Amino acid sequence: MSKIDIVRFAPKNGEGFYDTLKKNIDDYFKQNNLSVDGSGTIILKTVAMLSLFFIPGILIIAGVGALHPVLFYFLWFLMGMGMIGIGCSVHHDSNHGSYSSNKTVNTIIGDIVNVVGGYDVTWRIQHNILHHTYTNIEGLDEDIDSGGLMRFSPHSKKSPLHKYQHIYGWFLYCLLTLQWVTYKDYRLLAIYNKKGLLRKEKITLRKAIIELSIYKVIYFGYVLVLPIMYSGMSWQACVMGFLILHFTAGFGLSAIFQLAHVMESSEFPTPDDSRKMNNSWAVHQMLNTCNFSRKSNILNWFIGGLNYQIEHHLFPHISHVHYRSISGIVKSTAESYGIPYVEYPNFIVALREHGKMLKKMGEAA
Length: 365
Prior knowledge:
Blueprint: H1 17-31, H2 41-61, H3 69-95, H4 103-110, H5 112-115, H6 120-133, H7 165-174, H8 176-194, H9 205-230, H10 235-261, H11 281-287, E1 291-292, H12 297-302, H13 309-314, H14 323-336, E2 343-344, H15 347-364
Parallel strand pairs: 1-2
Helix pairs in contact: 1-14, 2-3, 3-4, 3-10, 7-10, 7-15, 8-9, 9-10
């Protein structure tokens, strides 16, 4: 059985960057008598995001969308936006344990991903364990592993096809959630079982496959079968609406997460021969993560503070509702240690810079 080939980060010390930063952040919450979880402010957002996904779906099944094709497809688009909102603003916090101080609540809210096409087990392993620990490290962070279709890291294998990835890559981003709801979760379960990672989730491969299959049947039943049966539109129109849902969600989620790490400012370091990294984990996160649109209230609210990816990677146990407030502390502490705090003024600028990075990685291939 193959195991995960882990690396070790440089040790921290009592006067290091992260120790000082944690003290500063702890002082902020104590002085303001605040809890690190989402508290009551996140409940309204949860209702809003769930409504954005499920209400259009109900209207489609009820035949309201059949009144006009534009309305029909617009409802599917809204479902895609709702899927982004659920993934970023609801499910994301809960699976990091920062939605609530109550573990049961975090588990229940986190399970919402299972009924919108995903699977909480594979998500926690890929995102919480691998991505957050080994950000931008080739062979460990699966967020930069596209299976060869894209080249995100200077250490990834090269292909002549990558020369055009800055053109075709945007379409592949649209397929992200479509992969998740069809085959990717099954593939990941097989991989994680071989690496012994399913044991960390206290689940066997057999049980995981059964669970996942039940969730998929439920998902496809209400999101595709019921609309075909009751929407009053043809099955071809329903399939097209289904694709609109996932193209919307896939592109949105891909862009949000890729803009945080696959940028020219990221270092993409590799371990030495003894599998050790030069930097501590916290410094590594600072050198491979960036923020964007810090001043946008709307974007910040909708994507669950994931425009503050630096704060999220350093403190995933803190709810996103606090990221804007603590960002000044993180930035000033980093600057006092001479550590870069990379940020882009808005989403469009960050998207353009990501495009430049895709082209750079493609030309290098």
